[in-house]
Each structure stands twice: as C-alpha cells, then as structure tokens.
Amino acid sequence: MAGQIMAEGKSRKPGLLRRILWWLWVILLMALLALGFVFAAPWKLITLIVIFLAAATILPRSYRKWFWLGVGIVVLATIAWIFLPDDNKGWQPYTFDKELAQLQARYAVPDSENAAIIYNQILADWKQKEANEPNLPKCWFDLVKYGPWSSKDQPEIAAYIQYHRDTIDKLVQASKFERCSFPITADIFLMGEHLEQLTATRRWAYLLEAASNNDIAEGNTNEAIEKYLAAVRMGQNASQQPTAVDVLVGIACEALAMGGINNFVVCGDANEFYLGKLEQVVSGIKHDWNSDLTGFIDSDKLITFDHFFVRKVMFMKYAQGFIVLPGGFGTFDELFEAITLIQTRKIGKFPIILVGKKYWKGLIEWIREVMLEEEHNISPEDLNIFKIVDTSDEAIAVIDKFYSRYLLSPNF
Predict the structure, then answer these.
(1) C-alpha dihedral sign at 90, 93, 94, 95
(2) What would the pLDDT profile of 75-103 be if each residue is shown by its tens digit?
(3) CB 208 within 8 Å of CB 260
(4) 333 to each of 103, 317, 338, how far by Cα in Å?
C-alpha cells in the first residue's frame, strides 16, 4: 500500500511541474501582450504574441506539441537560410573588399594635394632619427606646455627641439594642405603601421606645442603662430580619416593646440594681425572659450550676461579698481563712464589706472589743455581721479597705496 502511494506521488510530480511551467508561460505572454498595447508595439509583434498565447491556452493539448515542433523547425530553417551563401561558391570567409574599395574611392585625394604624403615622409625620417635624439627630462612636456619658456631655463628640451627642427619645418609645410587621406586597410596585420603613425602624431603635437611656447618666450611670434596652426591642421587632417581612432587623435591634437592658442590670446601679444591669422584655421572649431577663463578667473566669479548694458552696470557696481590698457571705443566708453560716476559722486571712489604713458599722453594733454584750461568743463581735482603708469609694479603700488587708506573687502 505504501509503495503504491509513493508510486502515485512520483507520477504526480511531473504533472505539477508541467502545470507550473505552463502558468508561468501564459503569465509571461499576457504580460508581454499588455506591455505591447501600453507601449504601442508593432502590430506584427502583438499578433505573434497572440498566436503563442492562443496556442498555449485554446489549442487542444494533443496538438500543442506539434505546434511547438513546427515553430522550432521554422526558427531553425530561418537561421539556416540567413547563413547560407548567396552564390554557388559555398561557404567562404566574409571579406570587406567591396566596402574597402568604396571607402578608398570616397576618401581619395590626389598626391599633389594630400598632406599624408608629407606625414609619411616625416614618419620615415623620424624612425631613423629617434635612436639618436637628445635625452629629455622626465615628464618633459609638463614643464613647457602651460606657457612661454626660454631655452636658457630648459636647455635639454631646447636641444631636443633643435634636433627635430627639420621635422617641425615639414609639419608646418604639411599644414598648408587642407586635405589628407592615409591608406585604408582591413588587414589587422597591417594596422600596426597605422598605429605607429598615430603614436607619432601625438609626439609631433607635443613637439609643435613646446616649440611654439619657446618661440613666444624668445619673441618669435610669427613662427609660434605657424606652429600652433600646424598642430591644429594636423588634428583636422587626422579627423578627416574614416576610422574612429584617427578622429579621436585629431580631436586631442586640436584640443592641445587650442590650449596654447588660448594662452597666447589671453596672456600674449595677440594683436589684430595675429588674431586674423589664427581665425583662418580655427574658425571652424566649435570651442567654448568661456571654459578656458576658469584657468585665470575663479569659477564663482565668472559671470556671463545676455545684454551688454547689464554687464556694464554689474561691472561698475562691483569693481574695486580699473586697470585700463590701450584699447578702442569700448575701452574709452567704460573708462569715461567710471570717471563720470566718481566725479558726480554716484559711486564710491576706486583707483583708475591707465597703463602706457605713450598711448594715453595725447588724450591727457587734450583733457588738460582743452577741457580744463580752455573750456573749463571740468575741475582741476578731476584729474586726480585717475593715474597713469607704465609698468605692472607701478599699477600695484597705486592700488596698495589707495587701499592702505580704505578698507578692502569682498563686495558681492
């Protein structure tokens, strides 16, 4: 009797398990159907779910195994059909010859217009010279990438740059070409040569940046601009290639060059002539110039405005001193507005310092001789509102003297 009960229990277990799996399958299909209606799934997908749900619930049990057998056969046949060759040549490894030919035709550039020809020549020469190049300090680029540096302060780096002078000249020559196309290959064994090119491109960008900063310190601004632009153009040429790694290297080269250009524009002698030369190449780069200001201005004090008049109001309200460099009409506008507001006692007095006695000499003489002595439109004490200096040390001395008599504290 006991053996009979155990036998009956064993026979029920598969039925119970099958029933649990059946309910789970039905619940899953109903959930998928509900989600299909909620998220507006394609009607073909909803129809397929309905067919499966009907097969699991409405179709008689004796026919269900044949239904799922048919589904399995259809799935296997579909997989086999997808992977069968399209011709009678049989199974063959897939190649990218057709796609590669299309890419080569799309990116083809005549040799006379192709910067890659020069870059390949530079790479060949670079490999031969690399073994005998001068030793460099550890992390040498960190010593020269942040701004101008003199050969006297870094003689080893200066010797390295001099050793690669012909490489720099050829890179500048390559920058005259706006189009660049390197050979395209799908052979993994030939990609090592291309990776050598990318590694060299990174080192060339460092070389150009370091040489540019050295030229700035040595007073060779024209040569520095050429090298900055050569680094930008090298990045642009790399970005013209069809592979993602080339594009990434190009973006990195452009970013490196833009860092040097930004330092030159903000801190260097970036007059209208030099800015015009820079804009010829960098005008196509979408660069957030405001993000570079955080290297010179505390981020909590960097404020931007949509309207110029609001900027002028805030500028005047919170300024605790004006350092006025030689400029144009906008400079004169803000200078005389500050002088007028202090003269009429609309704002508190703060130091106004004009830098460059030669530049401001004619204006000050006209103010004194015409406005004051001839027309009597201002008072003699109004000339004490501002000071004229020639050096930064003199400007600092004026500010220190002023605030030795007044309390200086943050006013915002």
Answers:
(1) negative
(2) 787 777 766 666 666 556 667 778 778 88
(3) no
(4) 57, 16, 9
